[in-house]
Amino acid sequence: SEDQACMTCHQSMMSDEPEEIERINALCLHCHGRSGTQAQEITGETVPLMEPQSHERTPHAHLACTACHQAAASLLHSEQEPVTCGKCHLPHHEAVARDAHVNVSCQACHLKGVRAVRDMEADCIRWEKERVPGSRSSIHEMVRFDDETPCQRCHYAGNPLGVAAMVLPPKGILCMPCHTATFSVDDPITLVALVIFCMGLILFFSISLSGSLSGESGSNPGKRLIRFLKAGLTVLFSARIVPIIRVLFWDVLLQRRLYRRSRIRWVIHALIFWAFVFRFGWGLLALLGSRWQPEWPVVWDMVNKNNPWTAFWFDITGLLLLLGIVLAFVRGALHRDRRVPGLLEQDRLALGLIGGIVVIGFVLEGMRIALTGYPPHAAYAFMGYGISLLFSTPRGLTEVYGFVWYIHAALTGAFIAYIPFSRLLHMIMAPVVAAMNAASDHHQRGEKRPEE
User: Fold this and answer.
1) What is the per-residue pLDDT across 296-328, written as a single tens digit (0 to 9) for each?
2) How far apart are CA 188 and CA 185, in angstroms?
3) How far from each other are the two terminal CA atoms of the chain, in whole angstroms?
4) CA–CA gap between residue 325 and residue 327 (Å, rounded)
5) Burial state string for 416-427 with b = 16 or more CB within 10 A and e = fewer than 16
6) By CB neighbour count within 10 A (0-12 exposed, 13-18 middle, 19+ buried), where does 157 fall?
C-alpha cells in the first residue's frame, strides 16, 4: 500500500543527527506542507496541512516531526494518539499550574488557535481545533503568556467546561493549613489578614518583652528579644534539643498533658488539631513533591481532588473538624454554669470561624463536582458529592462559584487575623513555652548533677 511504501524509508530514519532531522521533516512536509490539492493527489485523501514557514519559527522547529508524532513512523500512519508533552516536559509545579489544572492538557493552554473542551469519560480538559479541508493550519505555534491570556479560554460566563467564570487567585499561604498551596501572597484578603496577624504578634511580644532585664532598670524589649533569640540558637545546637523534641512530640503533637486533665477535652481538641495536621502534612508533601519530584505520579494523585484517596481523606478530615467544632460548642453550653471563676470563656468566635470555613469548603466541593459533570470517583468525596446533588442547574454555578470561593477566603483571612487577639494564640505560644520549660528543666538537672 501507499503507507507501506513510505514506511520503507520512514522507519529507517533516526532523529539524533541534524541531517536526519532535516530528512524526516522534508519527508513529512512532502505531503503535509503542500496545498490541499497537491496533497490529495499524492495520498488520495485529505490530510492535515501546515505552513512550513510558520513552523520554522515555532519552539520545536529544531526537532524531528517523529520526536513528537512517534506513531508517524509506524503503521498505520493515520492511526495516531494525541501528542503527549510529558515525554519531554515535566508538569508545572503547584505554584504555576495549581491543583485545578492537574487534568488540563498542556495544549489546551499552550497551543495557539485552539479551544478547550471537557472530556467527561477521561475526566480532563483537552483541546480542539476546527479544521477546514484544504487549508493550512498554524497548529504548532505556541501561546506566549505575555502575548495572550489563555485563562479566558476556559474562564468565561456560562462556559460548558465546569470552571469558575472569574479567574481566581492561586491558593496562597493562608490556605496551606488545609490545602495544597504555596507561600504566595497574591490577593488582597491574604495581604490584609497577614498584616493584621503580624501586627497582633508584634503587639503581644512588645508587651511580653517590655519588662526590665535582670540587673538593668527600665524596659528594653529589643534587648530581651535579642537575648531570647540567642538563647534559642544556643539550645538548638546543644544537648537540650533532645528533651525539647521529646516534649514537643508528647505534649504538643499527642497532647499528653491535656489527656491527663480531661479525656473529653482531649478528644475534642484532637479531632480539630489532628485534622489540621493531616491536611497540612498532605498539602506540604504534595507541594514539595510537585517542585522536587514532578515525575512521580503519586505527587499528582495527592494534588488531584478527583483521586479516590485524596477525595476520601480530605472529606474525612473535614468531617472530623466539623464534629470537633460541634462537640466543643455542646461541651461549652453544658459546662457554662460550672466554669471556674477567673478562667476565660470559650472562644465561640474562633470556633464559629473554623466551622464556617469547613461548611463553605464542603459547599464549594459540591459545586465543583456538579460543575464538572460528576467525574469518576466523585462519590469518594462523600460530603461534597451529597451536597452536589442539591444543585439542579449546575451550568449557572459558573458565575456563583467565584463569589462563594471569596466568602471561604474571607472567613479564612478573618480567622488568621483573629489568632493573635484570641485564645487561639496558645497554638503559637504553647509549643514555645513547653520547649522553654523542657530546656530549663534539663539545664537545672545538669547543674545539680555534679553536686550530687
Assistant:
1) 889 989 988 999 999 999 999 999 999 999 999
2) 8
3) 98
4) 6
5) bbbbbebebeee
6) exposed
Q: DSSP letters of 84-138?
A: -GGGT-PPPPHHHH-GGGTTB-HHHHHBTT-EEEEETTTTEEEEE----TT-EE-
In this structure, are strands 49-50 and 136-137 parallel, antiparallel, or unpaired?
Answer: parallel
- Contact in structure between 405 and 164 (CB atoms under 8 Å): yes
- Whole-model pTM? 0.80
Helix or strand or coil: residue 387? helix
- The cell for 59 is 519552539
Residue reference for cell 491535656: 258
Chain-centroid distance of CA 165 in Å reads: 20
In the block, cell 515555532 appears at 58
pLDDT tens digits, 85-129? 877 888 877 767 767 788 888 888 888 778 888 888 777 888 887
Give Cβ neighbours of residue 369 (< 8 Å, ≥ 6 apart): 375, 378, 381, 384, 385, 388
